[in-house]
């Protein structure tokens, strides 16, 4: 029985931080790619998602695992500018490549977020050595769960399927992120009524 894993869409990035050369998925083939979608004004991204991405960058060898941040802004566009992001990245000393998701005219949802059908931030996408999406999860993921999934991808032979635990089994509530439909949940909740 073969498992079908969709090919990861190309990253549609307007600008890159922390890298001289654009890290395309084609160029990263043969490595596992951890794509971390975040917004700098998303509390769960700042408290959990970005520190987790930094940890992954430190724990896994760069030749095996590429960690890429994707600033995918779907709310507060006026304040989450490239200049503000650059200052944020420097302040928190994030050193992995961070792409600014390309805006789409007439839509609050940027291009890569749309292509990957991400629900909000933080989102974690694991792409295997063949360039296929093996995990796409909105919300917080337990460090051990994501580490185990990366380890499993790193160890797997070219053709063996990955059997991962369902993300909801990771033991972290999914209500801690910024939903693309509902926002960060910091408001009064009256918007949806």
- Strands ordered across the widest β-sheet: 1-4-3-2-6-7
The largest sheet is:
6 strands, mixed
Number of helices: 4
Order of helices and strands: EEHEHEHEEEHE
Helix fraction by DSSP (H/I, runs of at least 4): 10-25%
Number of strands: 8
Q: Span between N and C termini?
A: 46 Å
The assigned structural class equals alpha/beta
Regions with pLDDT < 50 over 5+ consecutive residues?
158-173, 187-193
Binned strand content: 15-25%
Mean pLDDT, nearest integer?
86
Shape: globular
Helix-strand blueprint:
Blueprint lengths: L12 E5 L14 E7 L4 H17 L5 E7 L10 H11 L5 E4 L9 H5 L4 E2 L1 E5 L5 E6 L4 H13 L22 E2 L14
Parallel strand pairs: 2-3, 3-4
Antiparallel strand pairs: 1-4, 2-6, 5-8, 6-7
Question: How would you describe what is shown here?
Answer:
The protein is an alpha/beta fold. It has helices spanning 43-59, 82-92, 111-115, 143-155; strands at 13-17, 32-38, 65-71, 98-101, 120-121, 123-127, 133-138, 178-179. The longest helix is centred in the first third of the chain and has 17 residues, at 43-59. Mean pLDDT is 86; it is low at 158-173 and 187-193.
Task: Pick out its properties.
disordered C terminus, single chain, 193 residues, 4 helices, alpha/beta, two-stranded antiparallel ribbon, globular, six-stranded mixed sheet
